[in-house]
Design brief:
Shape of chain B: globular
Number of helices of chain A: 0
Helix content of chain A: under 10%
Structural class of chain A: mainly beta
Number of strands of chain A: 11
Order of helices and strands of chain B: EEEEEEEEEEEE
Oligomer: heterodimer
Strand content of chain A: over 45%
Shape of chain A: globular
Structural class of chain B: mainly beta
Helix content of chain B: under 10%
Strand content of chain B: over 45%
Largest interface: A-B, 25 and 23 residues
Largest sheet of chain B: 6 strands, mixed
Chain lengths: ~110, ~110
Amino acid sequence: DAGITQSPRHKVTETGTPVTLRCHQTENHRYMYWYRQDPGHGLRLIHYSYGVKDTDKGEVSDGYSVSRSKTEDFLLTLESATSSQTSVYFCATLGTGLNTIYFGEGSWLTVV
Amino acid sequence: AQKITQTQPGMFVQEKEAVTLDCTYDTSDPSYGLFWYKQPSSGEMIFLIYQGSYDQQNATEGRYSLNFQKARKSANLVISASQLGDSAMYFCAMRENTGNQFYFGTGTSLTVIP
């Protein structure tokens, strides 16, 4: 358990509004990830971070931005939410030994 | 090209029987790690097993073993003596050493039949 908490856990928002999901970890892990999970697609990487202020895009980054101003926090922002961004979002961190990735409990986002 | 391919969307297995979940991967990185995760209906992601690309022996964790065939780029999960609680979604994943990005497959839904 890497002490990962995601907030909010559930959110319903309207199309066009900004949304920020927060991921907080207590283990001082360097690498952090944001994934979205959709039926038939598995988990797809949105953005990841390899240190404070160091981030990079994943395979489905369009419409998303991230920030990491502290080691423990990784924020995912939907600048203007669309219905196609309705999904379950998972935050994850890479353990120090590089042989385990730890997941948060997920954030269910519905865009109406 | 897909980094991780899981070709079995759904699988059924009789309780107490063994089952193999298939996973193939694609990478040119000589150093990588392979993982399996379980996702029950409650939604959390549970780590099952890890295999490093340089590990000589197949990884085992209790009833889980990873059948690692490097030349064929396959990393199948074998669950022995299936239990009803094994019914879940199973994801294969790979970490490439370059950049430490993680790639996941689309998952296999396993149902254990009493």
